[in-house]
Design goal:
The complex is a heterotrimer of chains A (653), B (177) and C (157). In chain A, strands 3, 4, 5, 6, 7 and 8 form a six-stranded antiparallel β-sheet that branches. A four-stranded antiparallel β-sheet of chain A has the order 2-11-10-9. Chain A has 653 residues and is of the alpha+beta class. Chain A has helices at residues 2-30, 33-62, 69-74, 81-86, 92-112, 119-143, 167-196, 201-232, 243-268, 272-294, 308-332, 347-377, 387-409, 418-444, 449-474, 484-509, 613-630, 647-651, and strands at 382-385, 511-517, 522-525, 528-539, 543-554, 557-562, 565-569, 575-578, 580-584, 587-598, 601-610. Classes of the chains: A alpha+beta (653), B alpha/beta (177), C alpha+beta (157). The interface between A and C is large, with 57 and 45 residues.
């Protein structure tokens, strides 16, 4: 009964999405206010019904209704309840439903907080979002229905993939999707602007907070995925340049460029075609990412179960959406060019470089991800592009970017006088270079070119990010100090600096050692002694495990005890590695059990990872910067349906 | 003007390329081995009764389906309802090869989910699977009355693939082609 | 700076950036592309010399040899046609076992043994690396007799 209600709710949601997609766009074209307003109501209705559907699916999981095929395939009676809930979005059909739900939620949010936008414009935005909803709902109902029945019902389920039975990985998809789907708002704003022919600074102003919010969630989602991979996969790695990881990283890179490009468009009315194109591209990459993961075209341990039919549907949808948007772009963009100029030394220049470098980076990642496919289709054999290539390729645009970052932050719009600029920045620059060479030597015993560059870059970014906030604190008069926007920027860049620091140090100085250990034996890694005290069996709610008790000491002093486990989950019989990690403010000590070697010995993976937590901490600070920026006063408004500004009045502003 | 059309052209190229990639990558389009060749000889203890056996000689005389399955295989669970449906129609006998599995698990599966098979051979070690060229589950073979492999299906059997791949061969008189 | 000059600057920078990136990356591409080679091709001598490459297939039943307490491992891998011995020292992935698919990175060493520096097995029972699946499917066609352990009735061109 409940699954049928869920399915029916989805069908109702689809019909509402059709209203929401068509009527406001027609209404905007005809200047028909009633039609335009329908969009808001339809969006709300769609959200309600999608929520009902999602609720029905969740209910089916929580009550272990194995007459639903999706539940039978991904749950189990002994699965802890919290994972029964997270199993809802643990595979293709359910995660697609979550995507639809998040899209509906963003749409309602945009509809509520659009009082400052011209009516026709916000109607178009809602309309475009409605068209996207139609596509996804059709995809779900036609090819990926989560409510399909299993007759006869199974008496117990196939269990959720143990890899997903983890708190980190439970929140990772929702955060990622809020980010991916959030870029559809920027996309819709871009389409609306192109349809209306009006792409002014107000448009940029109102697109910014939505984009920054989406970007923020994507940052957190990616960060969580990386952190999870580190502690759950047992290899001690935090980024593998896996196609699915790349699929989330490319929209992030373009999204970052978009946020910065929007700043220029808002402030100076420039870069309009860049901004449009970036907005289209960010969302297109989100769609592309979904395609790569769900179609089976690129196989990765991350990917969902493959089905080419679904792949064709997504590809078709992707084609329609992106080609449609780019046709609009080719039509409208030529008339957007501005005559306003800027000096060579100006913030505009730096942000232009920023755009270019980020696009180059994203292109390189895309090339590396698709290259195996291209070469295979050209009958060049089956190849794989490994992390070494990505690392080099990615650094090529990134190193200039991080260096320019510090400069650009303190460069004025339009034209910057060189003298005060040099005066401000030369001390941090010199200090960063010197410390970049000296500090690694002091703390870790050696230095090298790439290492020094990375370290110096990190310190450079951190220092330059702190200049403005510190100055504003020192201001003695009652002036405003620093705006939230500027503070957000500084904080986000600071986060970036911390990230670069963590990535540089851990890449340069991490020590890995795979050794055989028997209870009583001890090995030395990076100056720490790891002694295996014992191996014992432990039982969990739906798994049984072998646990190693490893004591860590340094120069005879006790440091910590870690308990890495090798778990076998009861139903799927998969083996899972739970690493034992001892984390401090400046390093992690990572121990994972390998496999049984006989004679009581186990192979053990021991790693010393300095500063690795700064990678994720830096990402969190970046996201924090995003929130601060979004909370800026000029975005405050009342969520009101009554104060809709009429089209004509706003156009003249 | 051209630089504004460039992104559009690039995207169209990308999509065409991905379309080709999808078509090529379809596992169901992989070359099917053994077509037209005699099915490998085998004899296995049955799942339910280890003392009884099932083998090639049992397949002779009738068009038959041989389905390779295991309890650890999610795709097998997905196709199971359809197998039950096929068995209920009673138009073609279905024999199972329980591949690389454990007896108690397999028996429990049959018990819980239903048994579409005339009988299942227990191939715990996977030897027979290797002879049949099986490297993943599920796989389903259509074997003619005189023991020739007419078709091999990789992955879960669905109504669509049954209609498009198996039915024409069955209706074609089961002649080896 | 006039808009026209700005545009030229922008385009120039972009082109320069792409050119530099392209040069670096194409060079690195060559070094970092790792080819997947069918076991039968390795036996036939058709594999990249002097570089790492990937092989994949099924771990032959009964072929895993590991001394008690040691991390040195030897086993044989098959593509349903030919068998290749592999040696490896290190931690094994969770799902490495006989009869399962495996992918290894490394190079062919002395005495025709593939020296692996990395072994990848699957994350769950249902996932088989597509290169391995394709390789197996291709060679299963060549099978005329059932594969018996140790018998390398190996069809190479």
């Amino acid at each position: 009964m409940i699954p049928e209600i869920g399915q029916f709710a989805l069908i109702l949601a689809l019909s509402l999405a059709i209203c929401q997609g068509v009527l406001p766009l027609v209404g905007a074209h005809r200047n028909d206010s009633a039609m335009m307003q329908v969009g808001n109501t339809a969006a709300l209705g769609q959200f309600v019904f999608v929520t009902i559907a999602f609720g029905c699916l969740t209910w089916s999981f929580v009550t272990s209704d194995f007459s639903v095929l999706y539940v039978a395939n991904h749950s189990q009676l002994s699965l802890p309840t919290v994972y029964k809930i997270s199993a809802v979005w643990g595979a293709h059909e359910g995660s697609l439903l979550m995507w639809i739900l998040i899209l509906a939620a963003w749409t309602v949010a945009v509809s509520r907080y659009s009082s400052e936008l011209p009516e026709a414009f916000s109607a178009r935005v809602i309309g475009v979002l409605g068209l996207l909803s139609i596509g996804f709902l059709l995809f779900a109902l036609l090819t990926s229905n989560p409510f399909d029945r299993l007759t006869p019902p199974a008496s117990d389920g196939a269990d959720l993939n143990p890899l997903l039975q983890d708190p980190g990985l439970a929140i990772h998809p929702p955060l990622l999707y809020i980010g991916y789907v959030g870029f559809s708002v920027a996309f819709a704003f871009a389409i609306a602007a192109m349809l209306s022919g009006n792409l002014d600074q107000r448009w940029a102003k109102w697109t910014r907070p939505w984009t920054t919010l989406a970007w923020m969630f994507l940052t957190l989602g990616i960060m969580l995925g990386s952190w999870w991979a580190y502690y759950e996969l047992g290899w001690g790695g935090w980024w593998f340049w896996d196609p699915v990881e790349n699929a989330s990283f490319m929209p992030w890179l373009i999204g970052t460029a978009l946020i910065h490009s929007l700043a220029v468009t808002e402030k100076r009315g420039l870069f309009k075609s860049w901004t449009l194109l970036l907005a289209i591209t960010a969302f297109s990459l989100s769609l592309l990412g979904t395609f790569l993961v769900r179609s089976g075209i690129i196989v990765s341990v991350h990917a969902f179960a493959t089905d080419p039919t679904r792949g064709f549907f997504i590809l078709g949808f992707l084609g329609v959406v992106v080609v449609g948007a780019l046709i609009l772009y080719a039509w409208r963009a030529p008339s957007l060019d501005s005559d306003v100029g800027f000096a060579l030394l100006s913030r505009e220049t730096f942000l232009l470089l920023n755009n270019v470098l980020l696009v180059v980076a994203a292109t390189l990642v895309l090339m590396g991800t698709l290259a195996p496919l291209v070469i295979e289709l050209l009958n060049g054999g089956k190849i794989s592009i490994g992390p070494p290539w990505f690392e080099v390729a990615f650094l090529v645009p990134m190193i200039p970017l991080v260096l320019l970052l510090g400069l650009g932050m303190h460069t004025a719009w339009r034209k910057q006088d060189t003298r005060p600029w040099f005066a401000l920045l030369r001390i941090p620059a010199i200090a960063a270079v010197l410390l970049g060479i000296v500090l690694p030597l002091m703390f870790y015993g050696r230095t090298g070119l790439l290492l020094a560059v990375g370290f110096a870059a990190a310190l450079w970014i951190i220092a330059t990010s702190l200049i403005q906030p510190i100055r504003s604190l020192r201001r003695k008069d009652g002036s405003a100090g620093i705006t939230r926007s500027a503070l957000g920027m500084s904080v986000a860049h600071l986060g970036m600096g911390l990230f670069v620091l963590g990535a540089t140090v851990t890449s340069a100085f991490n020590v890995e050692s795979d050794r055989a250990l028997t209870p009583g034996e001890s090995i030395d890694v990076a100056g720490y002694d790891f002694t295996m005290l014992e191996l014992r069996n432990v039982e969990g709610p739906n798994y049984s495990a072998i646990e190693g008790v490893i004591e860590i000491s340094k120069d005879g002093d006790y440091v910590a005890t870690v308990r890495p486990q090798k778990r076998q989950y009861l139903v799927q019989k998969n083996w899972m590695t739970e690493a034992g990690i001892y984390a401090t403010w400046n390093k992690d000590l990572f121990v994972a059990l390998g496999d049984q070697l006989g004679n009581g010995a186990w192979s053990v993976r021991v790693q010393y990872k300095p500063m690795i937590r700064y990678i994720w901490f830096g990402a969190i600070i970046m996201a924090l910067g995003g929130i601060i920026a979004v909370s800026d006063r000029r975005y405050r408004l009342k969520a009101s349906k009554t104060s809709k500004v009429s089209g004509t009045a706003a156009e003249s502003a | 003007m051209s630089r504004y059309v460039l992104p559009l052209l690039a995207v169209i190229a990308l999509i065409l390329f991905l379309m080709v990639g999808l078509k090529r990558g379809d596992p169901r389009a992989l070359p099917s081995p053994f077509i037209g060749k005699p099915a490998p000889q085998f004899e296995l203890p049955t799942l339910k009764d280890p003392s009884a056996t099932i083998g090639s000689q049992d397949l002779e005389g009738n068009l038959a389906l041989v389905n390779v399955w295991a309890t650890w295989c999610v795709g097998c669970r997905a196709e199971h309802p359809f197998l039950l449906e096929l068995a209920a129609r009673d138009s073609i006998p279905i024999y199972g090869i329980n591949w690389r599995d454990t007896r108690p698990e397999a028996l429990r599966w049959i018990d819980q989910l239903g048994d579409p098979y005339i009988a299942s051979g227990f191939d715990g070690s996977g030897r027979v699977g290797i002879d049949w060229g099986v490297y993943g589950a599920p796989e389903t073979f259509l074997v003619s009355a005189d023991g020739v492999v007419l078709h091999k299906h990789l992955g879960p059997l669905s109504k669509e693939s049954w209609e498009s791949d198996f039915v024409p061969l069955i209706n074609g008189g089961g002649a080896a082609q | 700076m006039k808009p026209r000059q700005q545009r030229m600057l922008a385009v120039g920078l972009a082109v320069a950036g792409v050119a530099i990136a392209a040069t670096f990356t194409l060079r690195a591409f060559q070094d970092n592309m790792m080819f997947f080679v069918d076991i039968s091709d390795v036996i036939a001598g058709d594999y990249p010399k002097q570089r790492n490459f990937r092989i994949g297939g099924l771990v032959v039943d009964g072929s895993i040899e590991r001394e008690e307490g040691s991390m040195d491992l030897r086993f044989r891998v098959t593509d349903m046609n030919c068998e290749l011995p592999v040696s490896y020292v290190g931690v094994l992935p969770d799902l490495f076992r006989e009869g399962q698919g495996v992918v290894a990175h490394g190079r062919l060493g002395d005495e025709g043994v593939f020296v692996a520096d990395k072994i990848l097995a699957k994350h769950d029972e249902n996932y088989m690396a597509p290169e391995v699946a394709d390789s197996l499917a291709k060679h299963v066609e060549n099978k005329t007799t059932p594969l018996r352990q140790g018998v390398t009735e190996c069809v190479t061109e």
